[in-house]
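Hi there. Long-time user, first ticket. I'm pasting a complex I've been working with (about 847 residues overall). I'd like to know whether the download I got is complete or cut off, because the file seemed smaller than I expected. Thanks.
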Amino acid sequence: MSESVLRVEGIKKSFGGVQALKGVDLDIRGGEIHCLAGENGSGKSTLIKVISGVHEPDSGSIEIGGRRRERLSPREAIEAGVQVIYQDFSVFPNLSVMENLALNMELMDGRKLVNYRRARATASRAVSLIGFDVDLDERVENLTVADRQLIAICRALLQDSKLLIMDEPTSALTKKEVKSLFSVIKSLQGRGMSILFVSHKLDEVFEISERYTILRNGENVASGSTGDLDSKTFAYYMTGREFADESYRPGPIAAPPVLSVKDLCLEGCYEGVSFDLAPGEILGITGLLGSGRTELVETIFGISRPDSGSVAVRGREVKIRSVKAAIRRGIGYVPSDRLTEGLFQTQTIERNIVVAVLEKLSGRLGILRRKLVADTTARWIAELSIATEDPSLPVRVLSGGNQQKVVLARWLANDLAVLILNGPTVGVDIGAKYDIHGLIRALAARGLAVIIVSDDLPEVLSCASRIIVMRGGAFIEELDPAETTEAKLGELSTGVA
Amino acid sequence: MIQLHRLARRSEPYVLAAIVALCLLIQARSGQFFSGNNLVDDVRSLIVPALFSIGCMMVLVSGGIDVSFPAIASLAMYMTDRILLASHYSGSVVLAYAMAAGFGLAMGAFNGLLIAFLKLPTFVVTLGTSSLYTGIMYGALSASASDVPPAIAAHGKAKLFTATNEQLGLTSNMPVQVLILAGLIVVVFCLLRYTMLGRGIYAIGGDEAAAERTGFNVRAIKMFLYCFVGFTAGITGIVRISMMSFADPSTMLGMELTVIAAVVLGGTRVTGGLGTLTGTILGVTLMIIMANSLILIGIPTYWSRVFTGAVIIVGTGVTAHQVGSTRRRARAAAALGGLGGGVGAGHGEG
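Hi, the file is complete. Here it is re-exported in full:
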């Protein structure tokens, strides 16, 4: 067993009376990939900031490279070989790759003037460390998210680091990009570096790390070797709750379909799509990005118009020419990017809930009836158990899962026939994810027809009562979730056995 | 080494092309554009807006905005003028510049304190102090147009050379103040490109939190910026009254909008992070040519305002649109990643 590069013991830290860390230990050995997991608010970020010297702990000790200290300045942390890659990468989008790589070093050296020849040399050395092929003169904002991250990694390596801390490094990457990031991480490990990988994504933790530490509410709940961990215990450690494998079976379907789609076509996106959806059903539509899944549901919601085919709602054929028309027909849509598309972040929770039903809540001259607004808000906050005491707070103070619930509440307040959810739990942590799944099942059980568009296969399997796989703009197969597996769904959506 | 595709993405080439086209058009229709006196006249009217535009661009690059520079320039020059007149000063003009620069610096420092230390929004602060400084000038000092001290008057008459238009018998003098502009351009060029302070201004405009984490002294940089704007505004005030030979307190008020428009026209991003000195000077040049020389082809002055407005909307609209589409791309890339699809996001722009 190799020596520890970093050992923190009994770290406590509180902010204005809130105890963020209640005596946390963490031990990272030389050359290992260690995963730090925990839900939002578990204290992960605070712990990272303590290790990197940003926050001074109230008590406890930090031992780096065999030297014990009570406190640490950011500069001392860097000099001791600790580098953090933040979630936003801390890159300058408006500057060139070269400057992004070199400015740090120039500042660390206390230079007042810029020498572009030296900067270029520094930058080429940095990219050569991981064999990253990039145009040094390109502006960083023109690069992909993955490339920006590589720049942040290269920049960190320049400082001769022994421990690289990566805060949720995969949250903005595609699967392919995650793969190449992992190979970079492995190569750094091969060079003897230790990596602290902060994540709450199960599959990543299993794939990349050797050991793990899980925090909950500012305390250690478990640590050990990743090999001894399975997804159920992982979820339990993270949330403190037991999750049963669940699935959804609708009751006997007697009612006529509430939504019927026939031969719907949109040039270049999808074609010949037909399905019926009855109240109480949850239809899961899965497929890769570009399979036409999003375009299909956006057509049903009136964002784009189909070239041919028909849509019937509650048995009547309708032409949905706009989002407004779709809402009037009782169709609701929750987009995947809930933060930028679904909510008015700076507006209150109350306003976000009632915004789609203002007409119903207002009197004759279009003046809002305050009482009705407050009642509606209170009802949905209670019904969806949105964790807030004050609906007049801006919606951005809520956690991801609760924000998602606010979006749901908005639609439910509108007497829906069909609710379409696109990637309902993207970026939501485990506990909130299970809650949202439970909520969706409960809503369907009460007679709502739901469509879930998702490429999170376990999610589709545990929620949907029927699954349709899309590939290249067409329905490939319809499956019963009880009789299929993740592997089978994966095969169907990629077309690769 | 600048590659062609990268050059095509910048706005300077387009502004330069517009200037060249406009010059050629005016020359073809009137035969007067490239006459010596017209060129000198254009440079003459360029000096003050160009002096203002430099500080204005630097603030925009840092992600802020300053609308108080005409008020600072006016109050600084007016106080200087009154003090020098009252003391019957008869020495060199250098003292006038030093005093105005000092007053300007103090007013800029006040902006800077509010912005860098109290973290108040730049637009609100400078809008407020703009009104404050103008109010002091008219209220406390009951400003009205007044004479200038002999030193400033003499400085205003000094010329580098005289250009004569043989055909029309017109002459124009190239003012020495153009040297101040040239000097400021050289200083700011080096500052922005070769000092950590200059790169810090760009860094703040790109991502303030990242700049702080990287180790830039964000407060000090902001403080410097607003002081610098005040300092150059004070100098510009003296340049203006020396070229006019009398101190009109209202002569510069209201220039902030045209100057900001010219700076943005020159490719400076209103949301911060991008902007060059070359682009800024080109932007101001284009605006001046439109304001001054359209009359040579028989377009009345008020029409030149319409053209100016149209160019601002088109020019800045294009820039804003580019920013918008970059954002959309970034958001699309994030959405792709969030969904975890197997499709890699495309590299940059085509």
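A couple of notes from our side: DSSP finds 17 helices and 20 strands in chain A. The first helix of chain A runs from residue 44 to 51.
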